[in-house]
Design brief:
single chain, alpha+beta, binds copper (II) ion, binds zinc ion, copper, oxidoreductase, Superoxide dismutase [Cu-Zn], SOD_Cu/Zn_/chaperone
């Protein structure tokens, strides 16, 4: 009898203890008294990452003139980086356009080092599967010397291991042959020549949230007031 009772007590204690252990495990999440595994984590969507670069000439190439510009980089949840902006003062035609490894202008654009190439690849064009991360192809300047940039790239990033933040944008004297020149220099730099302008990529404030276009304001009251005045 005594043994049976003590066994029963032991059993009850065992059950209670195990359920207590179980409960404490499910309370581990802290905020929610539920097992975290069953409930999704709620979070607010992050604003897109935004960066900006102010392009200017540093006199690396003699007679290149004054080149100026600004390019914005925006990266949303999809991962692709959208680039938009313009550069003025270029000679008409194509100019190699790259991200270089350093955001250093202490000795002009030449302090920016080589093409940003964390994967140790050969030089290529932006659409190539194997390329330097920094290979963005060419900017095409019109007769007025202005190049408008409106494109996106899948390999550069504003965070993580391919981040271009703090690195340099370099615009070259000549056209980038995208690694198809057939010589040694082509698979290194694309034969794009001197560095006519450059700038350091810096983080920028996120763009304002999208606002749907507003309906035209109702100015009837104002008109009434005006007509009453006149
Ligand atoms: Cu370059
Ligand atoms: Zn390259």
């Amino acid at each position: 009898m005594y043994l049976k009772t003590s066994l029963l007590v032991l059993l009850i204690v065992a059950i209670t203890t195990s359920s207590t252990v179980d409960l404490s495990r499910t309370k581990r999440g802290g905020i929610y008294p539920y097992d975290a595994g069953f409930y999704p984590t709620f979070y607010t969507p992050l604003p897109p990452l935004t960066a900006t670069v102010e392009i200017r000439s540093y006199g690396d190439v003699e007679g290149a003139g004054e080149i100026m510009g600004r390019i914005m980089f925006v990266q949303g949840a999809g991962g692709a980086v959208l680039m938009s902006g313009n550069v003025t003062g270029l000679s008409p035609g194509a100019h190699g356009f790259h991200i270089h490894e350093f955001g250093d202008t202490s000795m002009g654009c030449k302090s920016m080092g080589a093409h940003y190439n964390p994967g140790l690849m050969n030089h290529g064009g932006p659409a190539d599967p194997f390329r330097h991360v920094g290979d963005l192809g060419n900017l095409n300047a019109g007769e007025d010397g202005t190049a408008t940039i409106q494109e996106s790239d899948h390999l550069i990033s504003l965070s993580g291991p391919h981040s271009i933040i703090g690195r340099g944008v370099v615009i070259h004297e000549k056209k980038d042959d995208l690694g198809r020149g057939g010589d040694k220099e082509s698979i290194r730099t694309g034969n794009s020549g001197g560095r006519v302008a450059c700038g350091v990529i810096a983080l920028a404030a996120p763009p304002p949230p999208y606002q749907p276009p507003m309906a035209p304001a109702n100015n009837n009251n104002n008109n009434d007031a005006k007509s009453a005045e006149s």
